[in-house]
Amino acid sequence: MEKRLLTLPELGLLIYMLRGKHQVESILALLPTAEVEEMDDGGTGNLRFVSSKPNRRLGKVVAELLYHDEDAAPVLATLYLDTEGGIYELDSWKVDFSPLKRIPAF
User: Fold this and answer.
1) What is the number of structural domains in the chain?
2) What's the Rg (C-alpha) of the chain?
3) Residue 99 lies in a domain
4) Residue 50, CB-side half-sphere exposure with 13 Å CA sphere
5) β-sheet bridge partners, residue 21
6) How does pLDDT run across 2-31, given as a tens digit for each residue?
7) Can you tell me the distance from the alpha carbon of 104 to that of 106, in angstroms, rounded to the nearest whole number?
8) Domain range holding 88?
């Protein structure tokens, strides 16, 4: 998979999701330079955050948000940490399983 930086809509979504959460300052500081890889998910917007740590595993949920795509279909975005507390994955689940059209401005 090809590494890239977050797009502005993705960055806005993550900042919005993390607003008001406790102990997320280190995550917020990393977001502007965080590298991600798009996951093979049929275009629903799932991202895995790149790390130099080997053998990372899915940990706990740090934030969730329900929003609507431009076609009015609900999308549940969930931000996960790894088992060591590093940012791990943004999982976006669109209820009709269609590809994500656009992340709204937050």
Assistant:
1) 1
2) 13
3) no
4) 12
5) none
6) 999 999 999 999 999 999 998 899 999 999
7) 6
8) 3-94
